[in-house]
Amino acid sequence: EWERIVTEMQIVAERMVRGEFTPRAAAAEIDRRADRLLEKRRWMIEQGRAQ
After folding, report:
1. Could you tell me how far CA 37 lies from the centroid of its own chain?
2. What's the rounded Cα separation, in Å, for the pair 17 and 28?
3. How far apart are CA 45 and CA 36, in angstroms?
4. What's 3's DSSP letter?
5. Cβ partners under 8 Å of residue 21, min gap 6
6. pTM for the model
């Protein structure tokens, strides 16, 4: 999961450098992507299935 989040951060940062995102919009996009990637982990923790 963390590796995937880092990859997504790199993708968004590259798009920000190209002018596709402002820094504020890039931060919001990274948050949105990380939330989506961690959604299953959170559900598993709530169900007592993850450590």
Report:
1. 6
2. 15
3. 15
4. H
5. 12, 15, 29
6. 0.77
Tokens of 7: 């990859």
Three-state SS at 4? helix
pLDDT tens for the chain, 51 residues long, are 899 999 999 999 999 999 999 999 999 999 999 999 999 889 988 888 655
SS in 3 state form for 7-49? HHHHHHHHHHHCCCCCHHHHHHHHHHHHHHHHHHHHHHHHCCC
Residues 6+ apart with CB under 8 A from 7: none
Phi, psi angle pair for 50, to nearest 5°: -115, 155
